[in-house]
Amino acid sequence: MHATVEHPAEHVEPKRIFLIVWGFLLALTGVEVLLAYQSLEIKVMLVLLMTLSIVKASLIIAYFMHLRYERRSLALVLMPAMVFVIAMLFVVFPDSLRLLWMSTQ
Amino acid sequence: MEAHAVATHAHAAPTGFIRKYIFSLDHKVIGKQYYFLALFSVVVGILLSVLMRWHLVWPDARIPLLDKLSPTGAPGGIMTPEYYLSLLTMHGTLMVFFVLTTAPQSGFGNFLLPIQIGAEDMAFPRLNMLSFWVTFAGLVVLLSSFFVGDGPPLSGWTAYTPLSAVGSVAGPGEGTGQTLWVISIALFCVGSLLGALNFITTTLDLRTRGLTLMRLPLTCWAWFITAVLALLSFAVLFAAGVLLLLDRVGGTSFFVPAGLVVSDQRIAHSGGSPLLWQHLFWFFGHPEVYIAILPGMGITSHVLSTFSRKPIFGYRAMVYAMMAIGFLGFMVWGHHMFVSGMSPYVGFAFSVFTMAIGVPSAIKTFNWLGTLWGGKLRLNTAMLFAIGFVSLFVSGGLSGLFLAQPPVDTNLHATYFVVGHFHLVMGVAAIFGMFAGTFFWFPKMFGRMMNETLGKIHFWITFVGVYCIFMPMHFLGLEGNIRRYSRFTDVNFLVPLIPLHKFMTIAAFVTAGAQFIFLFNLFWSMFKGEKATENPWEATSLEWTVPSPPPFDNFAGRHPVVYRGPYEFSVPGAPKDYVMQDAPEPVAAH
Amino acid sequence: MASHEAVTLGLHETESMWAGGRSPFAVGSKKLGMWLFIVSDAITFSALLIAYSFVRVASPSWPRPFESASIANATVMTLILLTSSITVVMAVRQAKLGNRSAVAGWLAATMLGGILFDVLHLREWVGLIEEGVRLFKNPWGTPQFGAAFFTLTGLHMTHVTVGVVYLGVIAIGTKRGKYTAEDVEVSGLYWHFVDLVWMFIFPLVYLMSAKFA
Ligand code: HEM
Ligand SMILES: [Cu+2]
Predict the structure, then answer these.
(1) Contact B167/B248 with Cβ under 8 angstroms?
(2) Is the domain of A65 the same as that of A18?
């Protein structure tokens, strides 16, 4: 019933690359924790932490979840849709800022 | 997670009754199950609407049996204002979720998508069965609210907070009833998500050889795009449902504002935002209206082309218009919130994008007209309903452009104008799509033909009837007739409008009555209808290359090959006025 | 041969992945299905995180109660989860190489990671509950703090737990020869996704509420 994988003898990526990615992820986590203890303005902190998290997520998607090694079309079908919807969700924020503004008036 | 459970498709047809008709893995049976689930829901939904119309114009009339259903909601057969709202909520929820989202997509889509793409089943048959039964459970949970506690919730199909979040202080039905509502909707979300990923995978992976994307019937395109919308938007509704449930049973206050007093009682938990619910709900809610209508658009395109004996006008434009509608559909939800207190700057952007949706909608409409233009029309029942779809979509869609403008909408938002708008464009148009689909594919689904005379009588009464019910609503709205109220007869400025209300109610009775003609036709034809041939409509897509009804694995082990698009009608030089998609011989010089 | 077929099918492209009869992405349907599930679930989590941020932004103040011990605990949990992603990668690798028992071993290691994560997390939960944090109140003000914390971490923990069971089923099934390398890979996708979600919950819920010394 399913489309099945076409080339059973898939190539197996070298272990090394995964260990490198893993190392990066650990390091980035460390950076995040250190950042959390800097006295930065909350907006700056948020942007920095989210940027690092997006980098981490991308590494996980690209390497661990193997998307980098699939045909490009798979990523092009999945990622823009997801990113678009999540981006649209951000449109709620003007309202929460306004609520804050109202409650502090 | 369930994906791993499907290892192989059983190649032998199941024999036991339960495996064959109840827990069936066959997409054709599951499609019919969805269809009948929606049919049942629509009957209940119409019944509720008739009760509401009845009460609206004769508020003191005793409605028989209603006090049996709810002694407190309708003492002596006269419904309380609260019970009116409960019926309204159940009507809306049943219709939007269990009818409009269920039959056109999961019903027809399940039955036809695999056949139209030349596959023997959906990609994940087991998941398919699961989606149906989860949806079924959602329906049971929803309907159970009639019988437990103090009745169904009264916060509308949109379950606006804080009304829906604070519990039984907010009125009858806001206790157990509303909790059941949330659970039902969460189940529905799960069923729809599983269904959506199944549809997407099936369309992408299981097309038979030669069936490129641009050779897909427009029905398949519509089901595919709808599935994408469902996958992306039900995910948000599910999140909103989880939060609402926690507000109700866990004591959180995501949606309950500070210092709220309900029924003279101060609500303890506070600090949240009702606006957040509206955002999350409508983030789903607007794509949802397209989830309801897109399959109808697909069916209409398919039927119009077939019975105009002409290729669909602008195939690619139709596909791109559907994509544009789907895409823009995620950028306009705020048009439901112009008076909610939402940021007016954002409101302006929402307004612009909303009007932009008019463009692809108009493209589709003109293409339908272009298809009809100069065609050799075969005006059978399916065709009439498809043309009716176009008519209703235009009539209802135009009023959307008025509502898209915040200054206009501020006046119209809480009135019958909106009710008129969405019933024409979504409610009735989508139902006409289902009728068109039913008359068109009944031969394939049940192996017999439906009765055309009864069909046409049913069409004309329904077509005239729905215009009589819903067109006047626009005028009521312009006169300031507020919606979601149960009694207008005592309101001074509305008294002159009561005769119009009475006219609408009578039209509703007649139209609802006419549906018995359809039900009779459906069930009678199932057993007594004329036997259908393989291709009674001389149509071209793959489902018409297999027997009616199709065998268990659709193509009996054959793998069809597709050589052309789905709308090759009246091709010059071809022996007949249609060329099947799997016909190999070259027909005309390029 | 491909081009000959294309001509007989009336196609212009010589060999198109999209011409039917195969997966356009050259992956199995199960994998595509899991990816779609992940996209959808990612949106659910995003909506929840955005709801949390909405409430937090709208609140004049928000507690920052996590002592460095809590942050250390959550950091260790992050390390465990990241490491369990590596073990699952190993399982997938062994599955492709056809070493069934090695697959079961690596999956078991992954499950252990998941269980450890759950245990550490529950310990944290119990600690907070003992301090008086509830869904609707907490000792530090703004009641939404507890609501957001338990909702987000609770749903994530549910995902981890479901994942442990799922991997267990796959591990046993693979050992018995019931599942293929594709099934292992698909379960791995799910596990990585659970890991990925944590990469957002950890900074947003913990780090942004870390208490300064
Ligand atoms: C050009 C096309 C359209 C435009 C510009 C448009 C615009 C609008 C606007 C501005 C509203 C909000 C009115 C208010 O609540 O004050 C609205 C409500 C609504 N529309 Fe449309 N619309 C369009 C097409 C559709 C379609 C195709 C559907 C369904 C298939 C639909 C279904 C609805 C529903 C269900 C509501 C009301 C929901 C409720 O309040 O309960 N609309 N529309
Ligand atoms: Cu809308």
Answers:
(1) yes
(2) yes
Write b or e for each residue in C25-60: b if 16 or more Cβ atoms lie within 10 A of its Cβ, otherwise e: bebbbbbbbbbbbbbbbbbbbbbbbbbbbbbbbbbe
Query: Do A23 and A61 have their domain in common?
Result: yes
Asked, for residue A3, whether it belongs to a domain, the answer is no
What the block records as the tokens of B340 is: 């909610």
Contacts of B576 (CB under 8 A, 6+ apart): B538
Residue B69's beta-bridge partner residues? none
Task: Judge if A64 and A94 occupy the same domain.
Answer: no
Task: Decide if A21 is inside a domain.
Answer: yes
On whether both A16 and A65 belong to a single domain, the answer is yes
Question: Ligand 2 center to residue B56 CA distance, Å?
Answer: 27
pLDDT tens-digit readout, A58-88: 999 999 999 999 999 999 999 999 999 999 9
Within-domain flag for B114: yes
Is A102 within 8 Å of chain B by CB?
A: no
Q: Which domain holds residue B484?
A: 25-589
pTM of the shown model: 0.95
> Is B421 near ligand 1, meaning CB less than 6 Å away?
yes
Assess whether the C-beta atom of B426 lies below 6 angstroms from ligand 1: yes
Q: What CATH number should be reported for the domain holding residue B490?
A: 1.20.210.10
Q: Is the peptide bond before B162 cis (omega within 30 degrees of 0)?
A: yes
Q: Tell me the CA distances in angstroms from A56 to B77, B155, B315, one per residue in order.
A: 63, 42, 43
Look at chain A and count its residues: 105
Residue B497, pLDDT above cutoff 70: yes
3-state DSSP assignment of residue B253: coil
Provide the residue range defining the domain that includes A100.
Answer: 72-105
Architecture of domain C27-209: Up-down Bundle (1.20)
Q: In the numeric block, which tokens belong to residue C11?
A: 């196609």
Q: CA-CA-CA-CA torsion for A77, A78, A84, A90, nearest 10 degrees?
A: 180
Ligand index nearest the alpha carbon of residue B158: 1
The total number of structural domains that make up chain A: 2
Complex prediction ipTM: 0.94
Nearest CA to ligand 1 atom 37: B422
Q: Return the ∠ at Cα B284 (arms to B281 and B290), rounded to 5°.
A: 135
